[in-house]
Amino acid sequence: MAAFDTTRTTYGSHGLTGRIGGLFATLGGMFAAWNDARVTRNALSGLTDRELEDIGLVRGDIDAVATSRARF
């Protein structure tokens, strides 16, 4: 019978190789989040004040929405 060990906190490479891989994964995630925020910011900045009002935003909310810091 096969068993899957769920008590380990990490799987895969250990040591330096695992840390380097983790670093690249973290950097890739940071880049993806930055790019998503950039695209969202550009899209919302292209809307008129009336269009922003229609979706319940003002121009000052764009940065908070793009970085997911909005509390609506």
From TrEMBL:
Residues of the YjiS-like domain: 31-63
Top-level taxonomic group: Bacteria
Listed name of the protein: Uncharacterized conserved protein YjiS, DUF1127 family
Lineage, uppermost ranks: Bacteria, Pseudomonadati, Pseudomonadota, Alphaproteobacteria, Rhodobacterales
